[in-house]
Structures are given as structure tokens and as C-alpha cells.
Amino acid sequence: MAYDFAAGCIGGCAGVIVGHPLDTVKVRLQTQDFKNPVYRGAWHCFKTILKNESVKGLYKGVTSPLAGVGLINAVVFGTYGMVQRYYDGGNLYSQFIAGAVAGLLQSFICSPMELAKIRLQVEKGKSKCGSLDCLIKIWQKQRIRGIYKGFSMTAVRDTPAYGVYFFTYELLTGGKHVSTLMMMFSGGIAGMASWLAVYPSDVIKSRLQSDGMNGPSRYKNSLHCLRLSIKEEGGYSFLTRGLFSTCVRAFPVNAVTFTVVTWLLRFAELMPTYDKQPLQQPQQQYKLINHISFKELFTNSMHLFEDGAV
To answer: What does the mean pLDDT of the chain come to?
Structure first.
């Protein structure tokens, strides 16, 4: 289980570094005033941020997901691994259930992290504070209610999203060891599928969490936000605003995340385990890991290449 958590942590950090710029574009498009739009589309938004705020503008708020994604992905992949072991591998249905449970649990960590991230991303010009400062200020004014603003929509989004995420990945890979290229492709498609399934709820969540930054709050709750947005914008088209940049971002982010996590778990499997040694030989059961030679690890790793796993 420890390997599940560690691999999820490292894989999540890699995914954030790859995908945060397009996440900033997504949030800007979702939250801009439709009556006086600043950006004409994803590409125009990207160029404008780069021109006016440089690369730092694209990475605004990155410290929040970077600090939180390790814990989030550790919870996601760790919970997923535990539920799968409970089902003893199981079928595609168990993959969905395991992913949904993981998504629900990580919402408690994800919601405050995304609140700080979104508020920093929406802020124009140079950021006046960091993610932690942002959360501290919210806590001082609104306590736990402010910190968990938008939590319900985070849970509504992430519970089915992670179910679809793991279901799609397992469907494409067949639960087998596949090549790195197939691994990346499956992870990318799984990420895109999960966003397509729940994107409208993410739009509502972003609007709720950015609401009240520069004045009184406009929305009473998620349902009121939905109704008011439909009324003001004359339809439902706003629910897909930023979807293109999200899908473009989702493929490389999840391709990297799944590949890093899977390879770390594969290398973990190569490490000798001693908990299955006979009880009459306890000295071998607790053999230190640093006694393993690099040659032994390298030789075992090559078996993956020989078996066509890469």
C-alpha cells in the first residue's frame, strides 16, 4: 500500500507541472464576464496571459495543487489500490467503484486547494499573495465555511470522474502490463473521458469558488449559480466554456501521471519482498533493502523490456 501512495504522489506532481498552464486558461475562460469577455478563445487567452503576465502568469496558483496534488494522488491511488485488493482485482464495475470511492475521499483535500488555486488564477496582474496566504485570509474571515466553499460541487464532479477515469484506463489496457506508449495513450484518453463526463459541474464549481473576490457574493449555492448563469447567458453554452483547453491539457497530464505511477509500481514489484519468507528464518525476512545490488535491480528491470512491456 505504501508504494501506491508514494507512486501517486510523484506521478501527481509530474502531471501538475505539465498541465497547469492550460488549467489557468480553463479557469480564466470559465470565470470571465460573458458581457465583456477579455478572451476570444483558448489560444487567445493563452497568448494574452503570456504577453501580459509572462510565463509566471500561466503558473499562477501552481503552489497550491503542487503542494496538494501529492497528497491528493496519494489518497486516490492508495484508496483505489485498497478497494481493488478488497475486490481481489475484480471487473470493470469494481474499477469504477474503486475510482468513485477514491474521488469522493480526495474531495476533502482537493476542494480547499482548488479554492486557493482558482482565486490566484483569476487575479489579474502580479499575485499579491501565495496559496497559503490566500487560505489563511479566507479562514480569518469565514472559517471552515469559507475554506470549503464549493466542496459539494467538487464532490459531485470528482466522485463520478474518478470512476470513469479508472474504468476507461482498465478498459483500454485490459488490466495487463502494456507498453509505455499504450500506457500513455490509455492514461490520456482516460483523463479526457473523465472530464467530458463531468465538465459542466466543474464550470459551476469554478464560478462558485471565484465568487465574491471583488465584492459581495452573487450566488447563494450551486443550484442558484446554475439558474442565474442560464438566465444571464440565455442558454447552456457556458457549461462547455473552456472544454477544449481542458481536453488538450487532460491528455498529456494523465498520460504522464499514469505512466509515472505505473512504472514506479512496476519497479516496486521488482524489489525483493521478505514477508513471505519462512518464520524459522527471521534474519532473512528483515534483510535491509540497501543490500540489494544495482546489478540485480537492473537485470530484473531488463525482463520488462524482453517481455515487451516497453
So the answer is: 78
